[in-house]
Structures are given as C-alpha cells and as structure tokens.
Amino acid sequence: MRVAKRVQNLPAYVFASLGSRLRELKRAGRDIIRLDIGSPDLPPPQVIVDAMYSIAQNPTQHGYGGYFGIPELRQAMAAYYDCRFGVKLDPEKEVAPLIGSKEGIANVALAFVDPGDTVLVPDPGYPTYSLGTLLAGGVPVPVPLLPEKGFLPELRKIPPDVARAAKILWLNYPNNPTGATAPLSLLAEAVEFAREYDLLVCHDNPYCDVTFDGYVAPSMLQVPGAMDVAIEFNSLSKTYNMAGWRVGMVVGNPVAVEALARTKTNIDSGIFLPIQQAAALALTGDQGWLAERNEIYRERRDIILEVLRARGIEAVTPQASLYIWARVPEGYTSGEFAERWLEGAGISITPGSAFGAHGEGYVRISLGMDTDRIREAMQRLASLEL
Ligand SMILES: Cc1ncc(COP(=O)(O)O)c(C=O)c1O
C-alpha cells in the first residue's frame, strides 16, 4: 500500500494532534482547561434546537439534502446578508450552502488551483487556507501580518510578479488567530489589487457577529465592485453557536460560487435537511440574543486580559473573534510557552507557530470556555512560575 505523496507530507490538523496529547494527560489524571480550540461552549437558542428536533421526526426528512441546499436555506442566507450588511444577493446564483465553511475553504482550492499554482495566504492564518492549497497541488505563499501594521497585510509589498502569478488572495477579518479587525478600506484595497492582478479574493468572515465594545464588522461584499472579484465565506458555527452542526456558506461572485458548488457536487451530498431548516430559522429569526452572548465573551476577554497584564504578558484587546493573541515573554518559543501553561497549570492554549512562521512569538487563547473555568484557569496562571 502506498499513500499519496500529497498525504505523506500532510501534517495532521493541529487540533487533531493536540487532542490526542490532551487525552493522554487526562488519562494520567490531570484536569486540563482547554483554551486552545475556537469552538463555542454555549448552545444555540432552544428554539433552533427544537426546530431541528421536530423536523427530524418527519420521516420524509432523512434523504439527501440536495446538492445546492434547499431554496429556503439559500434564501435565508441571502436575507441575512441583506439585513446584516445591506448586501443584495441572488439566492440561486450568488449563494451556496457549505458543510461548515472549512469544507468550502478546502474545496475552493480544488475549484481554482491547478498543480503548481500559487495562493496568497495570511501568515499567521487559519491553517486550511494553506492546507487546502497543498491538497490541490498548489503552493501557499505567505503574506505576513505584522503587529506594527495592526496585523493587516501590506498588499503593495507583494512583488508584482508574485501577485500576477497567484490565483487566490485570502483575507480573514475579524481575524483568527490575532483577533485583529480591518476597516472597509482594507477590503476595498484588496478588491482593487485583485482587479489589477486578476485574482480571486476569498474573504473568510466567520467572526463577523462575535464582536465587542460596539464594534460592527463589515462584509467584503459591501465594497463597490467586490462582486466582480470576490467571494466571502461565512458560517453559523461561531455566530449561532452551531459549530458541530456543520453549516456555512459561500456568497459573492456567481462564477466562483458556481465553480465551488459544482466541485462540491462531486464530493459531498449536501447537509441533513432538518439542519438546513433550523439553520434558515437561525439566520432569519430573532438576532437579539447575540448581544447578550457577546457580552459573555467580552467578560471572559477582560478576565483573561487582566491576569495576562498583571503577569506582564502583552496582548492587544480584541474587538472581535473568539481569541486573545498574546505575546510570548523573552526566553520561550511559542511552543515552549504553551507547554509551560499545560505542564505547570493544566491550561491548554495554542502556540502561535501553529498558524505560520509569523505566529512564532505569540500564543492564542480562546474565549470558548465556561466563564468559571476561565476564572479558574486565570487563578492557576496567576501563580504559575514563568
Ligand atoms: C477563520 C476561520 N475560518 C473558518 C473556520 C471554520 O469554521 P466552520 O467550518 O465551523 O464553519 C474557522 C474555525 O475555527 C475559522 O477560525
């Protein structure tokens, strides 16, 4: 048996390998507080769970979910974009449901990247932009996100020949892992850049509704002309606490949406129908609870920041996302610092190096954990010898 070369060199997904390490520690009797993964700990509102449950009682709702999703879901996705961003979308041509946005992020590479093609990916960045590219035989080209630039890419520093050769430019604001937010002007600059170099811009926006302190995140599609060159990935995972349900969407340029949707028809067979119906309800129902939920994250953010600062660990206060991006003190690599928290205090965080070379020197701390457990973690951190 011979595994393909592309898989021989493929690392296990960072959180898949971390999971086995943590299971070992647990077996050894350690109580580990997981602040590593960006999975919301809270459930979606009961009305959404009830809707899914009652639709699942219907014997006709257990077949394949349809290659392009049910019309009600595509319409609900378009209605959400209209209501949330004032962006009008054709639910037939400019919207496609995904089995979580990660699936679409990986599959869009199969739709656009030929072997040897290059893709501009943020560094640090969500790993699937690079790994999807590699699976398609492409080559990720890192675009550094630097602290002195607010973790925004300097697009004009990309050499013109590199930009011209690339197929896709990835952007992600509010950003994972840095928690940075971008003004609409940065997204407009990316549209201009894509036009000049004939790129597809993929903007990944799953944290647009996980925001604090009155911050309102934009959609790339609010930029005039964005529909010509861009698609946006979005997700119900973080906005509606539905990470395990696996529902996301791609919206925007109809040629790109169709190419991705057609690719997908050959790979998957759609989303479970009761999940699609409940997702439509989440997108179009009462959104008032999101402010209360975000207030819970905001409180957690402040609990963590207070202890980090008391320990002399620098971190910018994020206005959105589920993450605090904290600077590693002198004398540690990011891996060593994360290991120190794990061994010394039973707190699992993610080394910044998991997100690319420019993530070295940082660790990522997630807010997706019960507030009392976060308090406990911070008590442990307060007395950890560093
Ligand atoms: C930036 C970013 N994009 C996409 C995803 C994937 O989300 P999902 O596949 O649950 O929609 C995540 C999840 O952590 C993320 O952080």
Which structural class fits the helix and strand makeup?
alpha/beta
Order of helices and strands: HHEHHEHEHEHEHEHEHEHHHEHEEEH
Into which percentage range does the β-strand content fall?
Answer: 5-15%
- Kindly state the percentage of residues in helix: 40-55%
Report how far apart the termini are. Answer: 47 Å
| Biggest sheet overview | 7 strands, mixed
Give the tally of β-strands. 12
Mean pLDDT: 96
Shape summary: globular
Cα Rg: 21 Å
Describe this structure in words.
It is a single chain. By secondary structure, the protein is an alpha/beta fold. 42% of the residues lie in helices and 14% in strands. It is built from 15 helices and twelve strands. A seven-stranded mixed beta sheet has the order 2-8-7-6-5-3-4, sandwiched between helices. The site of pyridoxal-5'-phosphate has 14 residues, from helix 5.
Q: Can you lay out the helices and strands and say which pair or pack?
A:
Elements: H1 5-8, H2 14-27, E1 33-34, H3 46-56, H4 71-85, E2 95-98, H5 101-112, E3 118-123, H6 128-135, E4 139-144, H7 160-165, E5 166-171, H8 184-197, E6 200-204, H9 226-229, E7 230-235, H10 236-239, E8 248-252, H11 254-265, H12 273-284, H13 289-310, E9 323-327, H14 334-345, E10 347-348, E11 350-351, E12 362-366, H15 371-382
Parallel strand pairs: 1-10, 3-4, 3-5, 5-6, 6-7
Antiparallel strand pairs: 2-8, 7-8, 9-12, 11-12
Helix pairs in contact: 3-12, 4-12, 5-6, 5-11, 13-15
Bound molecules: pyridoxal-5'-phosphate.
